[in-house]
Amino acid sequence: MTMGKKAVRSGLPGLMVAVVIFVSGCATLDARDGDEEFQLRMRTTREPAIPREAPESVAPVAAPPAVESLVLLPAPRFVKYESGVHAPGSLEPRIDMRPDVMPHAQGYILSIRPAQILITARDPEGAFYARQTLNQLARQFEGTGKLPAVHIEDWPDFPNRGVMLDVSRDKVPTMDTLYQLVDLFASMKYNQLQLYTEHTFAYPGHEVVWRDASPMTAEEIRALDAYCRERFIELVPNQNSFGHMHRWLRHDAYKHLGETPTAPDLCPVHPGSIELLRDLYASLLPNFSSGQFNVGCDETFSLGRGCSKEAVDRLGKGRVYLNFLKQIHALVREHGRTMQFWGDIILEYPELIPELPDHIIAMEWGYEANHPFARRGSRFAASGIPFYVCPGTSSWNSLLSRTDNALENLRLAARNGLDNGAIGYLVTDWGDNGHWQFAPVSFVPFAYGAAVSWAYDANVGLDLARAADVHVFLDRAGMMARAAMDLGSAHARTGCLRGNSTVYYGLLMHALQGDPRTGYLNGMSADGIRNARTQIENALARMDASSMDRDDADLIKSEFGVNARMALFALRLGEERLKTGGGTSQLPQPVRRELADELARIIEAYQPLWLARNRSGGLADSVARMQNVIDVLSR
User: Fold this and answer.
1) Residue 172: its pLDDT value, please?
2) Is 484 helix (H, G, I), strand (E, B) or coil?
3) Is the CA virtual torsion 551, 557, 563, 566 positive or negative?
4) What pLDDT, on a 0 to 100 scale, did the predictor assign at position 32?
5) Which strand (E) or helix (H) includes residue 235?
6) Residues with Cβ < 8 Å from 435, sequence gap 6 or more?
7) 3-state SS assignment for residue 370
8) How far apart are the first and last CA of the chain?
9) β-strands 146-154, 78-88: how paired?
10) What number of H helices and E strands is found in the chain?
11) Cα(284)–Cα(278) distance, rounded to whole angstroms?
12) How far, in Å, are 268, 299, 311, 346 from residue 307 at the CA level?
């Protein structure tokens, strides 16, 4: 019998995750079996933390919690505790690879008995996920010297469960931040990650595009890819390849490739467009081990208005779009990858869906609580096109998230995805309009997306606030997650509800002028503003009372605090505008001066918090959007 044990820092501040490999003979995984891949992928590339003392040398200081109080994230599909029965916390698990016992891919059985912990898994992924569950149980029994006697059987609904982080809308995370997020996602049993890219990869020969963006380098991608693999996460390359190319097309060297001189879309009939993509893919894709590639191709709003007008008039807009998509697909296949693409445009031409080529996956996205995932996904299913459902965190354009919208959007995507045979579930976390929200604003939506994509029926009624407090915020006071959720729902108290946005962004960006009772700000009232302010202040007070066992606990509170200050500033601005019935520049001069000074102080607090988790590139662009409000106030 051979046994190895390594305790490692997960990368999440304050969170210790013990990665333990137990191998033995017979039916268990044995080092002599030569399963080098499993052993490699159970290791870590980060510096190991100082191992804790062996549990048997530490006298228990706490009574074991009641099994009724335990919470897991995601909740397993079958769990049965034996009340009052425990195992020593010093036990190490034995791992059996038994596909005959656990027939479901990525599935596991975790059995904790007084004398033994046994993990029975179909594959190495299942064994890894069993370890995450065991770690979560150990966290709740910390200091007791015990573990609960339990039998768990578990496997995922969706084989592919991922998160997409927007690293192009100004905010490129540091490598440490990315490692921390990967550890968080792995602990929640996500198995894919994408970094949404427009211009933030350091493409050789295209320095003019990315030089001020603090881009990801090839070496960093390779390091992150390896880190992900060791945690059974597939780092899927992502490069938008049709629309959203404005960061390229604004430069003289690329302007001729645009649909129009000011459009953000490549011209699909210009031969230089596909050659540019050929060059980009040749630099990007060798750094990834994934067999997939998301090429974007969403929101091509200017198609047919310029360079491609003649082709669109002759063939139709849908046909021109599909022809270019097929050219891109051919490039992707040259690299041996399966192509993912956003499905919004081809869905406008459902008669063309059957013409999509093989080795392709449609990404059906939508971010509102009533998005028609069922109707749209069924169109791909009817044509035999594999597809993912892609909801979102609702954190962008919000400052503090849109909690109710996010949770229903995430739930609806999972339910309708399962009903229509989706092969994957991707939680998107965008950064539109300056990426003002800080990362922890998305933690609760990440947790719920992980839960409902793993086992919908077991998690649709999950006590999400408690699960996130215990396993994400590590808050012993049980305050943080509910406070975060309440911050995210406060905007609705104003009476102004906007799709894909909040009243705060209307006041700070989209509706700086005009009557504040109409248009973008319709529904906003003085009473509603007071109600929203009270809810924000109450939630902040509860956050102050939280007790997070994380190294970045103070940072998280500061991040929520500054986002809340921005929201409160917006509410004050709205309140003043309701008094005058006019635009921001029409406020009395003393009020404008006071508001401008307050926003300047917010910017001063915002900048170091940005740099705590992210690179400097893009910060100036983000701050410039706030500075625009100061400029209007100072006129």
Assistant:
1) 98
2) helix
3) negative
4) 29
5) strand 234-236
6) 166, 169, 170, 171, 396, 618, 622
7) coil
8) 77
9) antiparallel
10) 20, 15
11) 10
12) 8, 17, 9, 20
For 163, phi and psi rounded to 5 degrees? -125, 135
> What's residue 537's pLDDT?
98
- List per-block mean pLDDT (blocks of 10 residues) for the chain, which spans 635 residues: 33 36 35 38 36 46 92 98 96 96 98 98 98 98 97 98 98 98 98 98 98 98 98 98 98 98 98 98 98 98 98 98 98 98 98 97 98 97 97 98 98 98 98 98 98 98 98 98 98 97 98 96 98 98 98 98 98 98 97 98 98 98 98 96
Residue 231: both structure tokens together: 């945690």
Q: Which runs of consecutive H residues, i.e. helices, occur in 316-354? A: 317-334
Q: Which residue has the tokens 């975060």?
A: 484
Q: What is residue 33's predicted lDDT score, i.e. its pLDDT?
A: 39
Burial (CB count <10 Å: 0-12, 13-18, 19+), residue 594? middle
Sign of CA dihedral 208, 211, 213, 219: positive
**Cα separation of 365 and 195, whole Å?**
16
- H/E run at residue 3: strand 2-9
Tokens read off for 463:
């006590």
């982080």: which residue's tokens? Answer: 165
CA–CA distance from 311 to each of 167, 257, 308, 599 (Å)? 34, 15, 5, 49
According to the 3-state scheme, what is the secondary structure of 19-73? EEEEECCCCECCHHHCCHHHHHHCCCCCCCCCCCCCHHHCCCCCCCCCHHHCCCC
Using an 8 Å Cβ cutoff, are 185 and 17 in contact? Answer: no
Establish how many alpha carbons lie within 13 A of residue 236's alpha carbon, considering only the half-sphere containing its beta carbon.
28
- DSSP codes joined into one string, 272-316: HHHHHHHHHHHHHGGG---SEEE------TTTTSSTTHHHHHHH-
Cα 23 to Cα 19: distance, rounded to the nearest angstrom: 13
pLDDT of residue 43: 37
**Cross-strand pairs, 19:** 6
Which pLDDT belongs to residue 58? 53
- pTM for the model stands at 0.92
Q: CA 276 to CA 279: how far, in whole Å?
A: 5
Among residues 312, 320, 304, which one has the least CA distance to residue 260? 304
pLDDT value, residue 52? 34
Torsion sign, CA atoms 321, 322, 323, 326? positive
- Token pair, residue 250, equals 């604004």
Q: What pLDDT score does 16 carry?
A: 36
Residue type, 289: S
Taking CA atoms, 486 is separated from 74, 449, 529, 551, in Å, by 22, 18, 15, 24
Identify whether the C-beta of residue 334 lies closer than 8 Å to the C-beta of residue 274: no
**Over the range 445-466, which residues count as b (16 or more CB within 10 Å of their CB) and which as e?**
bbbbbbbbbbbbebbeebebbb
